[in-house]
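Task card 7
Instruction: Convert sequence to structure tokens.
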Amino acid sequence: MTATTAIQSPLRATSRGTAEADVWAALRAEAEAALIEEPLYAGIVQATVLDQRGLPQALAYRLAHRLGDGDLARLSMRDLCLAAFEADPDAGAHAVRDLVAIRERDPTCRRYLDPFLFYKGFAALEAYRVAHWLWHQGRATLALHVQSRISEVFGCDIHPAARIGSGVFIDHATGVVIGETTIIADDVSILQSVTLGGNGKESGDRHPKIARGVLLSVGAKVLGNIRVGEGAKVAAAAVVLHDVPPHTTVAGVPARVVSRLAPEEQPALTMDQSFGFGDGI
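Output:
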């Protein structure tokens, strides 16, 4: 359930060093505070977090509550999600890194409980991981059902065969499309209305490869089997049809390099969408 990338040094200590037990303890403490803050929502918080044994069980419960429907009831969806998380020894670490990524990069996020309960991007990403597991178990029908429900409920369409690393932040999620042969490395940030799609009707390996630390800004379109290099920034509304060099900013239709970034810059973490050159008014 991970992108196949080489072992790399930590991008930021808290991203890789935060333990699952610590996040689960913080999530429970935040849930207990929320019981007092909003009694009307207390039952949901109690059932979703405080009544669960750990992070995988709580996540399976929450996804099932949001994705279960007439075709696949909540109880069946919960069992499916839990089976996927328990089968992958890294599932808890992925969820933790995804949650920490939101806390680090989203200035509106002040506690783990908010993305866990409400953020579409986090829910879509963790549900994709269930669909990805199903796909590789040869259970394509169920994998595609989960993909369909993610699209219907969260407005985010991720093919279950795509490979996505951890520490990935999908902000808002609305309108995000990630194609079948896409590979997204760790520590990438993706904003709303981003498309990682094919270019024409070719078959086989036909979707983008997004390297570590890339920022894909609002409405960016990356089309075809092309590579966006490590630490690059794709500006808002850019249409990318060719490889993007590492540590550069590309903008425009079609996209071209408009600035160079220092190797130590981390656009996926800073979330700075400026071009760096010729930004206009």
